[in-house]
Amino acid sequence: MSPFFIRWVVTTLAVMVVSAIPWTGVHADGLMPLLLASLLLGLFNAFVRPVLLLLSLPLILFSMGLFILVVNAVLLLLVGSIVPGFTVTGFWAALFGSILISFVSWFLSILFRGSDGRFHILTRPPAGETGRKGGIKKVEGRVIE
């Protein structure tokens, strides 16, 4: 799997989770708007977000990084205004939705360890098996191709 496709799937799942929560203010009318919104959000995060972060660097430094949340919210609002069937009700909904999308995306990205985009399954040792000091064995991963 390509790294772009994996990131798209993770972003789609994150947007789907956030749009399934009724009180977030982020809604998708079906699967196609959801897929298109997550694709556009991924493209904006890859190409537009670095430019916006560079242009707003003084504000980011002055706010100790909190202005990055505003940049993420603006990008989500922009996606909501472009994609038909994907709505974001306002700035505060976009801010809250972008925070939730970031958390869900981060949580789902735990499954993807390598920068090469390969899927790694993390395993744990059976109960009682030790491999290091303190009774904890190092977690090892397998690559599935």
Average pLDDT value?
A: 83
Secondary structure class reads mainly alpha
Query: What is the rounded Rg?
Result: 18 Å
- What is the terminal separation in angstroms? 8 Å
Helix content: 55-70%
How many beta-strand runs? 4
Order of helices and strands: HEHHHEHEE
Low-confidence stretches: none
**What general outline do the C-alpha atoms trace?**
globular
Question: Helical stretch count?
Answer: 5
The proportion of strand residues reads 5-15%
The oligomeric status of these chains comes to single chain
Strand order of the largest sheet: 1-2
Descriptive overview:
The structure is a single chain. With 145 residues, the chain is mostly helical. The protein folds into two domains: 3-112, no CATH class; 115-145, no CATH class. 58% of the residues lie in helices and 11% in strands. It contains five helices and four strands, in the order αβαααβαββ. It has helices at residues 3-20, 31-55, 57-62, 67-82, 91-109; strands at 26-28, 86-88, 119-123, 140-144. A two-stranded antiparallel sheet has the order 1-2. The protein has a two-stranded antiparallel ribbon with strand order 3-4. α1 (3-20) packs across α2 (31-55) and α2 crosses α4 (67-82). The protein is globular. The protein starts with a helix and ends with a strand.
